[in-house]
Design a protein that fits this description.
Helix 2 packs antiparallel against helix 3 and helix 3 packs across helix 4. Helices cover about 30% and strands about 30% of the residues. With about 180 residues, the protein is of the alpha+beta class.
Length: about 180
């Protein structure tokens, strides 16, 4: 599916929608909203909506489709939905973890206005609050919370990967990181 949109997203319904809703939404797309090619609609969009409808309107196909979506979630396949656009970066930053107040280096590898993905030398604890200073930037330190941590397969100076979420969105994150 294009852009990791599910058939539910394509039809604009929830995964719990009953058959009556699926059929009504499909008919609305095709006829009332003039998506059907015979009514002047986009053939590619009609094909996508037809595929979604054919799968979700058949109980066996829908059950199989739902199982595959659940499997993707559990195995981590498929790109997770993001709440903000991200940028791949490669920038050194500094972290301060209370209560000792010592600063240590980290490598930002993914940035959005809501948080960062980092490579770190020290294992962090999920839920810990920390301050982030942007090397070479006059911007004040930003407070964040550790949302996840995992051991990287490769050893070296950055054995851990972590995700941190800012307490408040940082719309100029790329500027602070020196990337724009």
């Amino acid at each position: 599916m294009k852009g990791n949109r599910t058939y539910y997203d394509i039809l604009g319904i929830t995964a719990k929608a009953p058959q009556e809703i699926i059929s009504a939404v499909y008919r609305a797309w095709m006829k009332a909203l003039r998506v059907h090619p015979d009514l002047g609609g986009d053939e590619e969009l009609a094909r996508t909506i037809n595929a979604a409808y054919e799968t979700l309107s058949d109980p066996l196909r829908r059950a199989s489709y739902d199982a595959s979506l659940e499997s993707e979630k559990k195995t981590g396949r498929g790109e997770p939905r993001r709440r903000a656009p991200r940028a791949i970066v490669d920038v050194q930053i500094a972290l301060c973890v209370p209560p000792d107040g010592n600063w240590f280096p980290a490598q930002a590898i993914d940035a959005s206005s809501l948080g960062l993905k980092l490579m770190v030398a020290h294992e962090l604890t999920v839920g810990v609050h920390l301050s982030i200073a942007f090397t070479g930037s006059a911007a004040p330190a930003t407070d964040a919370v550790v949302r996840w941590i995992c051991k990287r397969g490769a050893s070296g100076s950055w054995p851990f990967e972590a995700g941190v979420e800012f307490f408040a969105p940082v719309p100029d994150i790329l500027k602070r990181l020196g990337c724009s």
